[in-house]
Amino acid sequence: MPGWRVVAPRAAVALVWFYEGLWCKVVPGRADQRAIITQIPLLPHWAVTPVMVSIGLAEAAVGVWALSGVRPYLAAGVQTWLIGSFNLGGLLFAPDRIAEPGRLIVMNLALICLIWLVAERRASR
Predict the structure, then answer these.
(1) Closest-CA residue to 97 (of 22, 48, 31, 17)
(2) Residue-by-residue pLDDT tens, the chain, 125 positions
(3) How many helices and strands, by DSSP H and E, does the chain display?
(4) If residue 32 lies in a helix (H) or strand (E), which one and from where to where?
(5) For residue 88, how many C-alpha atoms fall within 13 Å in the half-sphere facing its CB?
């Protein structure tokens, strides 16, 4: 069984995905997240909630994957792609709904660095 030095960084990454997915998009769901999703081009109003919940559940699944340590480089690549896509989509389609774009980018760059450090540590074991 891996020790806390192995599990803690993975858990930190997973907790971000669980928070962003389950809390911000599923239960209870944040109004700012909903506002960004409503700005997706061609997305009908009736589809906003199902899309938001689906994204949230997918993010939680990524958290489980990150916590598992399985296929660490693939997991890091998928996480990087998702973070980049979500950030780019939000900044392109709903820039007025993102209070502090600079903070968003800086915090997500730090998360991406942690994700790749976790992957490297797992792969080298």
Answers:
(1) 31
(2) 678 888 999 999 999 999 999 999 999 899 999 999 999 999 999 999 999 999 999 999 999 999 999 999 999 999 999 999 999 999 999 999 999 999 999 999 999 999 999 999 887 77
(3) 5, 0
(4) helix 31-38
(5) 6
Q: What is the pTM of this model?
A: 0.92
* Structure tokens belonging to residue 1: 């069984």
Say how many Å lie between the first and final Cα of the chain, rounded: 13
Closest alpha carbon to 123 in 81, 69, 63, 65: 69
Residue ranges of the alpha helices (H) in the chain? 4-18, 31-38, 48-68, 72-93, 101-123
